[in-house]
């Protein structure tokens, strides 16, 4: 289960198919170094994305 406090890098290692979902929400920089140390909640805030909607999509 993916939660808002998980790091982007951790999510991608756990669920590689999450990359398509993240990019679909406008997070095109998932491969950048900062994504390895940024939580899903932080990244969503930076990109103006509703974290709850994103988590719901990632956990389907």
From TrEMBL:
Organism whose genome encodes this protein: Gottschalkia acidurici (strain ATCC 7906 / DSM 604 / BCRC 14475 / CIP 104303 / KCTC 5404 / NCIMB 10678 / 9a)
Spans through the membrane: none
Protein's UniProt name: Hybrid cluster protein-associated redox disulfide domain-containing protein
PROSITE patterns per the UniProt record, alphabetical: PROKAR_LIPOPROTEIN
Residue span(s) of domain DUF1858: 2-55
């Amino acid at each position: 289960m993916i939660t808002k406090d998980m790091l982007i890098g951790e999510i991608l290692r756990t669920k590689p198919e999450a990359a398509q979902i993240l990019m679909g929400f406008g997070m095109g920089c998932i491969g950048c170094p900062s994504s390895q140390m940024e939580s899903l909640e932080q990244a969503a805030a930076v990109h103006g994305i509703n974290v709850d909607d994103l988590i719901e999509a990632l956990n389907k």
